[in-house]
Amino acid sequence: APTAALNAKFGVCFSCHGVDGHAILPTYPNLAGQNKDYLVQTLKEFRDGTRPNPIMGPMAKPLSNSDIDQIAMYFADLKPGKK
Amino acid sequence: APTAALNAKFGVCFSCHGVDGHAILPTYPNLAGQNKDYLVQTLKEFRDGTRPNPIMGPMAKPLSNSDIDQIAMYFADLKPGKK
């Protein structure tokens, strides 16, 4: 389970991608066990607009590189395939 | 393991995303166990250009809806977390 601090900061991520990294809808991606470098790169693309996305763009906008590193590591470290 | 027919058709997918759905590079996404609906939607976005991507755009261009369904099901059915 995430720390209270992580939950306060990234609760909005968990509301779609799941606190266990398994998405709440089948059209959303599972992130549990995803490659950390891929997650970092993708969040930066969302933030910087090189991968335009109406949902993830605004979500990623306020994130610092350090935030991105933190949440990417969280999801990468989760065990995939729970369902 | 994929059938010979699947391998002939989708070998190019496996060369980056792995025949077991685990990407060959950490900046590529693992697809094993990913939600099928997400994979279908994403491949259609690549194909139709609504998600522009210099690598995946040309890859997805020739795919029929049935091709997309087939490869999405293949990756979704793989066991995630092998490494």
Written description of the protein model:
Two copies of one chain form a homodimer. Chain A is mostly helical and 83 residues long. Chain A has one domain: Cytochrome c-like domain (Cytochrome Bc1 Complex, Chain D, domain 2). The first copy, chain A, has four helices and no strands. In chain A, helix 2 packs antiparallel against helix 4. The longest helix of chain A has 14 residues. Chain A is globular, with a radius of gyration of 12 Å. At the A-B interface, helix 2 of A face helix 2 of B.
Name the descriptors.
homodimer; 83 residues; mainly alpha
Describe this structure in a few short sentences.
The structure is a homodimer of 83-residue chains. Chain A is 54% helix and 0% strand. The first copy, chain A, contains four helices and no strands.
List the helices and strands and how they pair.
The structure is a homodimer of 83-residue chains.
Chain A: H1 4-17, H2 36-48, H3 56-60, H4 65-77
Helix pairs in contact in A: 2-4
What is the architecture of chain A at the second tier of CATH? Orthogonal Bundle
Chain-averaged pLDDT of chain A: 95
**From the helix content, strand content and strand pairing of chain A, which structural class follows?**
mainly alpha
CATH topology of chain A: Cytochrome Bc1 Complex, Chain D, domain 2
Number of domains of chain A: 1
Q: Please name the fourth-level CATH homologous superfamily of chain A.
A: Cytochrome c-like domain
What is the helix fraction of residues of chain A, given as a range? 40-55%
Q: At the first level of CATH, what is the class of chain A?
A: Mainly Alpha
Distance between the termini of chain A: 17 Å
Model regions low in confidence, pLDDT < 50 over at least 5 residues of chain A = none
Q: Determine Rg of chain A (CA atoms, Å).
A: 12 Å
Could you state the order of secondary-structure elements of chain A as H and E?
Answer: HHHH
| Count of discrete alpha- or pi-helical segments spanning 4 or more residues of chain A | 4
Shape of chain A: globular
Strand content of chain A: under 5%
Number of strands of chain A: 0
Largest interface: A-B, 18 and 18 residues
Oligomer: homodimer
Main sheet: strands, sense, barrel of chain A:
none
